[in-house]
Write the structure tokens for this entry.
Amino acid sequence: MDRPIRVLVAKPGLDGHDRGAKVIARALRDAGMEVIYTGLRQTPEQIVAAAVQEDVDVVAMSILSGAHNHLFPKVVNLLRVEGVDDVLIIGGGVIPDDDIPGLIEAGVEAIFTPGSSTKDIVNYIKSHIKRK
Amino acid sequence: MNIVERLLEGDKKACARLISKLENNEKEAIDIVKQLYNRTGNAYVIGITGAPGSGKSTLTNKLTKELLKQGKKVGIIAIDPTSPFSQGAILGDRIRMNDLALDKNVFIRSMGTRGSLGGMSRATWDAVKVLDIFGCDYIFVETVGVGQSEIDIVKVADTILMVVIPNTGDDIQAIKAGIMEIADIFAINKSDLEGADKTKLEIEMNLDLNEKNEYRPPVIKVSASKNQGMRELLEKIYEHRRFLEENNELEKRRIRNSRLQLLKLVEDELMEIILDKSVKDDLLDKLSREITKGAIDPYTAKNRIIELIRR
């Protein structure tokens, strides 16, 4: 594939910490991806609108506030309502192990918790994007 | 429904996908633009340029809101630099525009420069045409944060708005050639900061030295984040548009832009042909080595490459 992978890096909800999201954004940039960074405190609707208009391959969300069980599935569902079915959805942040199966069940395809290496995330994206 | 029908119905997903395909130079997308090209020409294109951090995105956001109040449909293309090393990019202009994303009359697209050095990407022009076909009344093209000479924006814009901030450089900066010459309107943003009057004066004095033209770029003080001067700024854009339209200048400008665009397309294709041919038989590398050693001069080497396409 000789086009750059486009990734939306989004911070849903009300937490105000995006150090982690910025580190990920930078790592994806260095891996040759085009990263659209939305900034803090995005509603699921805003994230989906951005994903549609930017025509991204990946939606990567980060939450540190504990609202992941509510917000991640909401973004997944809104994307489906919009008929977006060729986007890889991944999540990260402070997410208890017990919550991960439920999020996967809801349609988030992978969860990266603190300690994940950026290299693994890059490799995961490269091997799982859905569009040629 | 196919992508063309969806685009004409105002489907943002179709619009977004078509822009991606053009960015990736896909033939299918080029064929669609060919097919729909007779629908272009209705949108008015405003170029927003200025230094990094001067407030281009915030200003674009606020001007868009004014246009929405007037019932207009607005497209925004925001460009940020692509890394020359990794080919990756951080496209961060949306951060200042997220509150517009849900409006049905707004379409925002971020683009990386992907190797272009003039402040825009190769596909910016294509994206403008798609948004024009999509039915936008106004299209903002926000360049990368520019320095002194990234003036490709003149190739797509009808009106160029130069965003400057107070206290950036002495009065010599205002008389330098390049970017300061292409502005149709100067917006001194963050003008609540000290030095705004001095900056305005320096720009005005420089404009005093221009040959007398019918149109003199206005210089106005605004503060986008405080939403000050936005209506006045929009009024200046309208005034410039009226000037262009009433004096037949808009057509002239667009013909000039079409010419530049056409030359660019020819140049890109020729370059591709030349590279293709000269890389194939290792000619480019061979000549480069010989030039370095002094075995051949670059002008003769150039002729050898040009011969490849003359044949």
Chain A touches chain B through 29 residues (CB under 8 Å). Chain A is about 40% helix and 20% strand.
